[in-house]
Amino acid sequence: MEEQKNAAIELRNITKTFGKVVANKNVSLCVNRGEILSILGENGSGKTTLMNMISGIYFPDEGQIFIDGKEAIIASPKDAFDYKIGMIHQHFKLVDVFSATENIVLGFEEEGGYNIRRSAERILAISEQYGFHLDPMKKVYEMSVSEKQMVEIIKVLYRGADILILDEPTAVLTPQETRNLFDILRRMREDGKAIVIITHKLHEVLSLSDRVSVLRKGEYIGTVETAKTNEAELTEMMVGKKVSLNIERSEPENPKERLVVRNVNCRDRNGVQILKDVSFTARSGEILGIAGIAGSGQRELLEAIAGLQALQSGEIFYYDPETGEESNLRDKTPLQIRDMGVRLSFVPEDRLGMGLVGNMDITDNMMLRSYRSGKSVFVKRKPPRDLAQHIIEQLDVVTPSVNTPVRRLSGGNVQKVLVGREIAASPTVLMAAYPVRGLDINSSYLIYNLLNRQKKAGVAVIFVGEDLDVLLELCDRIMVIGSGKITGMVDGRTATKEQIGLLMTKTDGGETHE
């Protein structure tokens, strides 16, 4: 490792294990003042574990951390703050009923005691310096996701942090909000701060960072200057082999109406309206994308189609591809809807809490979906076992065997089992929500190609995704939802990210182009 003259943080031979799992092995890298360093790596490559050691959440088993050339012992988040290190986590830790200012000063002892007006003035000064748009008196529960993130960033700046670590900061932002965040980070860089971004979005790495450090399976692979690299080289460093980054989008062949949703309205348990007059058509042999800020009603819409969410009003018609018969799914139970071939693969944040049983192995989890069709008292294990083996091979699931309990698989591998199980059921309508959430690039492309194969087989595919670049590359049409309403329908081949971003933040129904 070469000596760095202006290194804010230098890691030397850091190793961290959890039981038999080696999360980081002999990692050495450094972050300079006045630079943005991206830490890039697939799922489970040890990115977050490494940053958690810098921010005092974990303590390394071996190795040293140097701050400004002097060895530092960081045994708690308080130690990290004393070294002016601030980490902005993916999941915000804010008190909803407090204002921005109250959240920022919470637990921070200032000279001269607590003075809300003085604190608010200081927050405004920080906001002006870096270009934040934040009302210090606004309550957190009234804020958008990006405003909450601003509060988290200002919170660490207020405490004097000049080394900032951001974990997947753009996961829940629109393109416009992402651009705004990047402008702020560039201003911080000009101000001499050291900034680390954990990510797996290659185009963001290339547009924002000065250097990129790549981790693979817990080991440090290398650091490259962003200006001298490209997506293909970074992918190869991440994955260890060349990966084709092309999603092949075929033209829809002989598309026919498979699902027609008309004027659907839903309320949640508290009586709040979550879907407002939603109408659209999903056709066989095409991929219909759904875009929207998290929590805009995507989940409820798919659950309504699958019979898991009660409708207040509206109809959902399904056209059987073999008989051509029309059925109103409102009259059917979730089980009847599944048996008709309408399948929902919803990848939640808690992958084990929904859809899979952690203590059961992969074969048994396959049987959860297929045992109902067995007539005998003794459920046949062979077909689910063959199916489990097929999914493991086709999706490259990393597991010792089909008999391994699902809870012992990494999140990304659990996810492949979830998605593979629904695809293996030969559906006529496949609803895949966030199927690549948090997956590494290799696995993501495997799943995109599986969805494309379903499309070519005449399935009506509905794909809910977070990455607009992927939606634009994969989908034939993209429907945008904002606050429970459809704000637009665009052509996946001609639409732009900006156009979709604007529709995502719109609240009234927009033009729809079928």
Which key phrases capture this entry?
single chain, 514 residues, alpha/beta, Rossmann fold, 2 domains, 6-stranded mixed β-sheet, 16 helices, 20 strands, disordered C terminus, ATP-binding
Can you describe this structure?
Pfam families: ABC_tran. GO terms for molecular function: ATP binding; ATP hydrolysis activity. It comes from Frisingicoccus caecimuris. Keywords: ATP-binding, Cell membrane, Membrane, Nucleotide-binding, Repeat, Translocase, Transport. The longest helix is centred in the middle third of the chain and has 16 residues, at 175-190. The protein has helices at 47-54, 77-82, 100-105, 116-130, 145-158, 175-190, 202-208, 231-239, 298-305, 334-339, 362-370, 382-394, 411-423, 441-456, 468-474, 497-505; strands at residues 7-18, 21-32, 35-41, 62-67, 70-72, 85-88, 163-167, 194-199, 211-216, 219-225, 257-267, 273-283, 286-291, 313-319, 326-328, 342-346, 429-433, 460-464, 477-482, 485-491. Mean pLDDT is 83; it is low at 349-354, 369-381 and 509-514. α13 (411-423) packs parallel to α14. The chain has 514 residues and is α/β, with parallel strands linked by helices. It has two domains: 7-239, Rossmann fold (3-Layer(aba) Sandwich); 257-341 and 426-505, P-loop containing nucleotide triphosphate hydrolases (Rossmann fold).
Give the SSE layout.
Layout: E1 7-18, E2 21-32, E3 35-41, H1 47-54, E4 62-67, E5 70-72, H2 77-82, E6 85-88, H3 100-105, H4 116-130, H5 145-158, E7 163-167, H6 175-190, E8 194-199, H7 202-208, E9 211-216, E10 219-225, H8 231-239, E11 257-267, E12 273-283, E13 286-291, H9 298-305, E14 313-319, E15 326-328, H10 334-339, E16 342-346, H11 362-370, H12 382-394, H13 411-423, E17 429-433, H14 441-456, E18 460-464, H15 468-474, E19 477-482, E20 485-491, H16 497-505
Parallel strand pairs: 3-8, 3-9, 6-7, 7-8, 13-18, 13-19, 16-17, 17-18
Antiparallel strand pairs: 1-2, 1-4, 4-5, 9-10, 11-12, 11-14, 14-15, 19-20
